[in-house]
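Internal tracking record. Fields below are filled automatically when a chain is submitted to the structure queue. Please do not edit lines marked as system-generated. If the sequence contains nonstandard residues, flag them in the REMARKS field before resubmitting.
Queue: standard
Priority: normal
Entity type: single polypeptide chain
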Amino acid sequence: MMRYAGLTDPGHLREHNEDAWQVCSLTSGHMLFVVSDGVGGHAAGEIASRIVVETLPLLLDPRISRDTDVIAQKRAMEESLAALSYQVLAQTRQMPGAAGMAATAICGLLADGMLVLGHMGDSRCYRLRDGILQRLTKDHTVVQMLLDLGEIAANQLIGHPAAGRLTQAVGMDQEPLPHISAIALNPADILLFCSDGLHGMIDDEKITGILSLRQKPKNICKTLLNAALEAGGRDNITVIVVEIEKMENQ
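SYSTEM-GENERATED OUTPUT FOLLOWS
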């Protein structure tokens, strides 16, 4: 069993909200959580993120059954995200003024105490367990690549000239290489799926404090959004909070 909620806000500076989110139950009984942040500006970004959240369930559903094991679930997530990326790219080429249209995607497939994660871009998934926050994804960005290579330090990430430049995204004109992982969950774990409008405005310590309040997911979402807005709200902000209460197979 689980409780969940999601919210989005355009922030203080953007006229359009290019973020989108979706929670749905697949035919197999798996729950799917998706956050997407559109790239390309105005209508193009909004279109791309909407395609991600509306189309991914349709691509994933026929690839998953109730008996699909975790290895097959990971393969299904990878295939679905790759197919989605090519689909968004094909639509981009047919739409006037849509050059550069793409979107991030963070997707969580959850059932029987296992979370299969797929992501492209810099939207993130976190897990709070026993008061400790762990980021479950690594950003697909130029600055993350530079950090991994040791060419910049962690304190140089904010304000770096390459900040915001993605190395992977749904719809990019390159081979899609989504990162897929599987994580075992415990009762009382809290999951956070979010766009960079949240993690780019408040740090992990602040996120940990808010999640640790153990409020209802809807209230946690509101508190997270308000914290990002109070910190400046320079981008669209989207969050989904999932509280694991009891494993489905217990």
